[in-house]
Amino acid sequence: MACRAGHGGSEEPETVTLGERRVRVTEILDRWPGGDHLYFKVRGDDGARYILRRDFEILVWELEVYEAAEDERGTGQG
């Protein structure tokens, strides 16, 4: 996970690494605090949405939720 300084100097996600694949964060959709964590809902350059969690104590990022892009989920139309 690569980060950049965001609003108020706090770290914001810039890229997400999934195995060998790197996904660039194109948009931060939402952010909210939660106890000892800060959560970010982001969209990647792959069109998928991710919820990422930043742990303040051990200073690590975790992937909480992955939601595939619309075209990857299939709509049953065709």
Short description:
The chain is built from 1 helix and 6 strands, in the order E-E-E-E-E-E-H. It is mainly β and 78 residues long. The protein has one domain (2-70).
Q: How does this model look, in words?
A:
The chain has 78 residues and is mainly beta. It has one domain (2-70). Helices cover 5% and strands 63% of the residues. It is built from one helix and six strands, in the order ββββββα. It has one helix at residues 70-73, and strands at 2-5, 11-18, 21-34, 37-44, 49-55, 60-67. A six-stranded antiparallel β-sheet has the order 1-2-3-4-5-6, with no helix packed on it. It is globular. It starts with a strand and ends in a 5-residue tail after the last helix.
Name some characteristics of this structure.
globular, 63% strand, single chain, 78 residues, mainly beta, six-stranded antiparallel β-sheet
Helix content: under 10%
Bulk shape? globular
Multimerization status? single chain
Global Rg: 13 Å
Low-confidence stretches are none
As a percent range, the share of strand residues is: over 45%
Spatial strand sequence of the major β-sheet: 1-2-3-4-5-6
